[in-house]
């Protein structure tokens, strides 16, 4: 029977642990970000208590954030929000009679679950509360939740800096019946 070299086994284990840590660090820092959803502001697009991953690379390396992208925003207090980008730098944004206006022109928001939206309009008389025009700065975006009556977003916090966007998109892993990419 061969004698076990404990010193070699421990060093081998530590080497494996360090390599795994470095791989996870590089993946989560530059490519994907794990996302735990602890809010209903994107309901029914994204359910509360969902878990998934979000794309860091396209935001940090390519600076690729577009209108209607779902993004993860880092707040100053360290909390993260998941919202949808509706306004881009230097645009003027407003809401009137459940319509998004950009630079005074109505913009259709095709991503809503219309059945849910109609239920909320019946309940409140509106889905998106009217908002006076606000002009964004050269490095600002305006983000709102898909569950407009219940979302705390740029209408509450003000515009977000582009540097606050940590990642975009969401690939849901759980719940399993929602497995896949979210638009």
Task: Give a verbal description of the structure.
By secondary structure, the protein is an alpha+beta fold. It is 24% helix and 33% strand. The chain contains 4 helices and 12 strands, in the order αββαβββββαββαβββ. Strands 1, 2, 3, 4, 9, 10, 11 and 12 form an 8-stranded antiparallel sheet that branches. The protein has a 4-stranded antiparallel sheet with strand order 7-6-5-8, with no helix packed on it. β11 (165-174) and β12 (180-182) form a beta hairpin. The termini are far apart.
Topology (SSEs and partners):
Elements: H1 6-30, E1 32-36, E2 51-55, H2 57-60, E3 70-74, E4 80-87, E5 92-96, E6 99-102, E7 105-107, H3 114-124, E8 131-135, E9 140-144, H4 154-157, E10 160-161, E11 165-174, E12 180-182
Antiparallel strand pairs: 1-2, 2-11, 3-4, 3-11, 4-9, 5-6, 5-8, 6-7, 9-10, 11-12
- Average pLDDT: 92
Q: What fraction of the residues are assigned to beta strands by DSSP?
A: 25-35%
Radius of gyration: 21 Å
Order of helices and strands: HEEHEEEEEHEEHEEE
Question: How many individual helices?
Answer: 4
Which residue ranges are poorly predicted, with pLDDT under 50 across at least 5 consecutive positions? Answer: none
Overall geometric form: elongated
Sheet with most strands: 8 strands, antiparallel
Structural class: alpha+beta
Total strands? 12
Kindly state the percentage of residues in helix: 10-25%
User: Distance N terminus to C terminus?
Assistant: 59 Å
């Amino acid at each position: 029977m061969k004698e076990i070299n404990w010193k070699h086994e421990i060093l081998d284990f530590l080497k494996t642990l360090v390599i795994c840590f470095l791989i996870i660090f590089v993946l989560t820092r530059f490519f994907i970000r794990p996302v735990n959803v602890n809010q209903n502001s994107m309901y029914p697009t994204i359910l509360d208590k969902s878990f998934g991953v979000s794309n860091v690379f396209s935001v940090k390396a390519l600076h690729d954030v577009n209108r209607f992208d779902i993004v993860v925003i880092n707040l100053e207090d360290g909390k993260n929000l998941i919202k949808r980008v509706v306004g881009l730098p230097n645009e003027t944004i407003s809401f009137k009679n459940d319509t998004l206006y950009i630079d005074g022109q109505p913009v259709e928001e095709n991503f809503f679950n219309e059945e849910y939206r109609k239920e909320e309009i019946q309940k409140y008389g509106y889905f998106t509360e009217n908002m006076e025009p606000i002009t964004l700065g050269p490095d600002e975006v305006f983000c709102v939740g898909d569950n407009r009556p219940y979302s705390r977003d740029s209408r509450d916090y003000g515009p977000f800096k582009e540097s606050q966007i940590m990642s975009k998109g969401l690939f849901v892993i759980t719940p399993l019946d929602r497995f896949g990419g979210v638009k």
